[in-house]
Every structure is written in C-alpha cells, then in structure tokens.
Amino acid sequence: MALGNRSQSFATFMILCPTSFFLGILFSLFPYDYPLLWTATPTPQSHFTVLETHLALLHASPPIIPRILHIVISVGLIGFFIKLYRPSESNALFDGASLVLYMCGVIVYLANIVKGLRVVSSGRYDQELVEGELAVGVKGVDAGQEAPLGRDDSLRVLAASNTILALVLVGVLVLQAGQWYAERKEGQELESIRKAEKEKGARSGTQRTGSGKKKV
Predict the structure, then answer these.
(1) What is the pLDDT of residues 137-165, one digit of tens each?
(2) Closest CA to 164 of 109, 99, 117, 100
(3) Are 128 and 119 in contact (CB under 8 A)?
(4) CA 92 to CA 84: how far, in whole Å?
(5) Which of 5-19, 54-68, 133-147, 182-196 has the lowest mean pLDDT?
(6) What's the rounded Cα separation, in Å, for the pair 98 and 95?
(7) Which of 19, 99, 110, 183 would bridge 80 by S-S if both were Cys, CB 3.0 to 4.6 A apart?
(8) Residue 11, exposed/middle/buried by CB under 10 A (0-12, 13-18, 19+)?
C-alpha cells in the first residue's frame, strides 16, 4: 500500500512539473500577447514586428530545444499512464479528466502553435488559411470559404492559442488539486471512523471486564 502511494505521488509529480513548466513558458509570452488580445487601444505595428521577430527566433532555436520540450511533454503523459494503471475511482475521475485536458493542450500545440510558428518564420502569411483556430488551406480559396489571414491576424490567432493552452493547463492543475483535496478528506473520514470503532471496542471491553468482576 505504501509503495502504491509513493508511485502515485511520484506520478503526480511527473504531471505537475511539466504542466507548471509549460505555464511558465506561456507566462513569458504574455507580455507579447497582452496588447494583441486584452487592450482596447490599437496595437502599434512596431509591436507586431517585435513579436514576429521573437517568434521567428523561437522557431529557429537549436534542435535540442524542441527535443527537450517534447521530452517534457512525454514525462507528463507517462505520469498519467502510471496513475491510470489499475485506477481507483478517484484516479478514473480526476486523472481521466486531467488527461483529456492535457491531450487537448497537445493538440492545440501541434495544430495551432507549431504551424503558426512555421508560418511566422517563413513570412508567407498569404499562403495560410485559418478556419476558426486551425491553420489549414492554401492561397486561392473557393467562394464561401475563409479568406487568408495577414500578419496581424495570424499573430492574434497565435496569441489566442497561447491563452487557450494556458487555460487548459490551469484546468489540469485544478483537477490535480481537487484530487488531492478529495483524497485528503477521504483519509480524514476513514481515520475518524477507525478512532470511533477503537473507542467503541475499548468501551465494550471495559464493560465486559466490569460485569465479570461482579459475577466473581
């Protein structure tokens, strides 16, 4: 039982560390994203140029950087698989929902952010078509389809994707915290039940001893 609790705690650690790591990365991008999404004042073109340069630099990072990033993503997935191996009811509910959110974050990263970084790095915005949040399609779309986005709108889509990813990761942390609280309350209730049963057993034993003495 103790070994199982240790493995569960280590698996939770494997989930929380990557999630917090990615939130830290997104927080470092927030000063760039804030003027694009969260202010009513028009964003100056100089800010778009600075953001474009920053994202192009990120995409041109040495191969070791994305490899480390993907290893960290894999660590989180391994943590979920450990916790969901022969799951309890708590694991099935909280960890199952956390895994769904985590996979949603991976999909947003692959479908929006990675492709968006490629577009920014190439500078060929007119060859990308955005339907909702997904960048798909090519230049020269048929009538009735979405028009290609320019540089400003493409950078806004990337900023919105970062916000969605941050909310998804916060949801993972909230669910893990909820699981810890639920298990803690359950442990306290079981401990109180054990104490009550011990006290009841001690009283019944005392009563039996007293009645035996009276008979003698």
Answers:
(1) 444 545 445 566 788 888 999 999 999 99
(2) 109
(3) yes
(4) 7
(5) 133-147
(6) 5
(7) 99
(8) buried
- Residue whose token pair is 């450990």: 82
148: tokens are 């290609």
Contact 11, 82 (CB under 8 A): yes
Q: Phi first, then psi: what are they for 42, rounded to 5°?
A: -60, 140
Instruction: List the structure tokens of 12.
Output: 């939770």
Q: How many residues does the chain have?
A: 216
Q: What is the DSSP string of the chain?
A: -HHHHHHHHHHHHHHHHHHHHHHHHHHHHHHHHHHHHS-SSPPPHHHHHHHHHHHHHHHTS-THHHHHHHHHHHHHHHHHHHHTSS--HHIIIIIHHHHHHHHHHHHHIIIIIIHHHHHHHHT-GGG-EEETTEEE--SSPPTTSPPPP-HHHHHHHHHHHHHHHHHHHHHHHHHHHHHHHHHHHHHHHHHHHHHHHHHHHHHHHHHHHHHHHHH-
**Residues in CB range of 109: below 8 A, 6 or more apart:** 73, 165
Q: Quote the tokens at residue 214.
A: 């009276």
User: Looking at the whole model, is its pTM more than 0.70?
Assistant: yes
